[in-house]
Amino acid sequence: MKEYDFLSLLKSQELKNTEAVITIGVFDGFHLGHRTLIKRVKEESNKIPSSISMVITFSSNPKPGKFRNIDTLRLRKEEVEKEGIDAFVVIDFSHEFSMISASGFIEMLTSLTTPKTVVVGEDFRFGNPSSSASAQDLGSIFHSLGIDTKVIIEKAILTEGGEKISSTLVRRVIEKGETGCIPSLIGRKYRVDLMPCPFRLEDGALVYGKDSIHQLLPPPGVYEAESLDESGLICNGLCYVEDDNLRFKPTDKDKTELSTCSLPLDSIFFGERK
């Protein structure tokens, strides 16, 4: 998978004449609904041999200050890459970019590449607040620009209880400390990115200041956890979420001494709350 900066790619015109099947979104939490979109992009791209599959996302959440991100950009990129996407395009979201109208954004998209198909969720919205548009408006905007682009709107994925799986739901579950339920929503354990967070060794534990972690954390408590080091090795342990720190202590018999772990850690996966 190749990564691009949106504006740099627009300027270079590298993919201007390349047919593409595209999905667009923040993909925070990368839940089962997001996975459905990505898989549909791959399916549609496979129907057009000359096309590439493309994900367009944002460097940070377009709603800054409202809440902490569930995932970092690095983690989102890893999840997208696992799905076999060809191009990962990142919009460095800014105030100037937020002022672009819905039709203005689509014009930029058609200058970026040749969009054959666009796949979005039913709640997708784009454009500045005064001239935003919905997923249902995409087709008419492309048509008004004289561009023949197929628009696919995927329905939301529901929980067994009938609730829509969304980033909002994932966030709410994490905030309640119900981390053991997260795999049913995102297809994996909740992962906290520790690269390149500073840490210290203290009483047989790795200690990270919470202010250096740029993700949503569950409430204070003790959680079953797994650490992933830079070499890909997994170490079981307990994660203590405190008021100011996150503390990981290995419990594997052969790894209770931190000197046997490869440091620094790449990330921590949260399991059940103790």
Protein traits:
274 residues; alpha/beta; Rossmann fold; Elongation Factor Tu (Ef-tu), domain 3; seven-stranded antiparallel sheet
Condensed summary:
This protein has 274 residues and is of the alpha/beta class. It has helices at 6-12, 32-46, 73-82, 95-98, 102-112, 138-144, 167-175, 183-186; strands at residues 2-5, 19-24, 52-58, 87-91, 114-121, 125-126, 133-134, 150-154, 190-193, 200-202, 205-209, 221-229, 234-241, 245-250, 265-273.
Rg: 20 Å
* CATH architectural label of the largest domain: 3-Layer(aba) Sandwich
Q: Into which percentage range does the β-strand content fall?
A: 25-35%
What number is the mean pLDDT? 92
What is the terminal separation in angstroms? 39 Å
CATH-assigned fold name of the largest domain? Rossmann fold
Low-confidence stretches: none
Name the CATH class of the largest domain: Alpha Beta
How many domain regions? 2
Q: Specify the biggest β-sheet.
A: 7 strands, antiparallel
| Helical amount | 10-25%
CATH superfamily of the largest domain: HUPs
Overall spatial form: elongated
Can you describe this structure?
This protein has 274 residues and is of the alpha/beta class. It folds into 2 domains: 2-154, 3-Layer(aba) Sandwich (Rossmann fold), CATH 3.40.50; 181-273, Beta Barrel (Elongation Factor Tu (Ef-tu), domain 3). It is 24% helix and 30% strand. The chain is built from 8 helices and 15 strands. It has helices at 6-12, 32-46, 73-82, 95-98, 102-112, 138-144, 167-175, 183-186; strands at 2-5, 19-24, 52-58, 87-91, 114-121, 125-126, 133-134, 150-154, 190-193, 200-202, 205-209, 221-229, 234-241, 245-250, 265-273. Strands 9-15-12-13-14-11-10 form a 7-stranded antiparallel beta sheet, with no helix packed on it. The chain is elongated and about 65 Å long. The mean pLDDT is 92.
